[in-house]
Amino acid sequence: EQDVVEYKKSLAIRVSGFDVPRPIKTFEECGFSVDLMKTIAKQAYEKPTAIQCQALPIVLSGRDIIGMAKTGSGKTAAFVLPMIVHIMDQPELEKDEGPIGVICAPTRELAHQIYLEAKKFAKSHSIRVSAVYGGMSKLEQFKELKAGCEIVVATPGRLIDMLKMKALTMFRATYLVLDEADRMFDLGFEPQIRSIVGQIRPDRQTLLFSATMPRKVEKLAREILTDPVRVTVGEVG
Ligand code: ADP
Ligand code: MG
């Protein structure tokens, strides 16, 4: 009997917010392009994970989201796939005006993993992804950003450095992801995160993912998200 209770706990899904779009059961329901569906198939992603079933329709509808689910639950694709759709929906510009999608992650390693995942899905749409984190030469990074990109995956500190160096502008950024927000706070990035968010237009779409919801993260979420839908999968924080 205990086992049954544990099982149910691990699958518990809680969703709160008003007018929440209904969850999907298959990627086909998402209305993705043929190219994007092909890339998903190539990843051998047969069906969306629990967090993806809930989050994809919410994010695709343009809503802000607070997503909580344990490591390994597929959160990256839950924000990268709608980001590709969001970018494809934007008008093409003659002149480069900076990234449309901005993803912040706590560490170089995590940012790099997200970068690789984003590249996989971006490739078929000729969307350019730039990685912005420590360990790479600032000059090289500056040059890469100057060349232009639609997606930036960054650690907060290095992104601030690049903004100060005017390697990029946030004029065009309309899709912001804060991944592992609790860890970014643990690492002392709250001021940097606040500075980055402050440089992005308020009518952006904002996605916040976190394994736990400490008071400080909750407070930030209240300040920077607009009518978010909250999705929790399993027993987290
Ligand atoms: P999280 O950010 O929640 O810790 P990740 O996004 O890193 O999880 O995903 C964990 C692993 O699951 C990755 O190897 C990813 O490629 C894989 N994955 C993501 N979505 C699916 C899916 N729908 N089907 C199968 N594997 C998936
Ligand atoms: Mg993750």
Helix content: 40-55%
What is the number of strand segments? 8
Mean pLDDT: 93
Amino-to-carboxy terminus distance? 24 Å
Global shape = globular
Reading the helices and strands in chain order gives HEHHEHEHEHEHEHHEHE
Rg calculated over all Cα atoms = 17 Å
Query: Which structural class best describes the helix and strand composition?
Result: alpha/beta
Sequence stretches where pLDDT stays below 50 over 5 or more residues: none
Q: Ions, cofactors, ligands: which are bound? A: adenosine-5'-diphosphate, magnesium ion
Beta-strand content bin:
5-15%
Domain Helicase ATP-binding: 56-231
Family: Belongs to the DEAD box helicase family.
Motif (Q motif): 25-53
Protein name: RNA helicase
Task: Give a verbal description of the structure.
The protein has helices spanning 2-11, 34-42, 50-60, 75-88, 108-123, 138-147, 156-164, 181-186, 190-198, 215-224; strands at 13-16, 65-69, 101-104, 129-132, 151-154, 175-178, 205-209, 229-233. It has 237 residues and is of the alpha/beta class. Strands 1-8-2-7-6-3-5-4 form an eight-stranded mixed beta sheet, with helices on both faces. β4, α6 (138-147) and β5 (151-154) form a beta-alpha-beta unit. α3 runs parallel beside α4 (75-88), α4 (75-88) packs across α5 and α7 packs across α9 (190-198). The longest helix has 16 residues, at 108-123. The site of magnesium ion (MG) has 3 residues, from α4.
Question: What does this entry show, briefly?
Answer:
Keywords: ATP-binding, Helicase, Hydrolase, Nucleotide-binding, RNA-binding. With 237 residues, the chain is α/β, with parallel strands linked by helices.
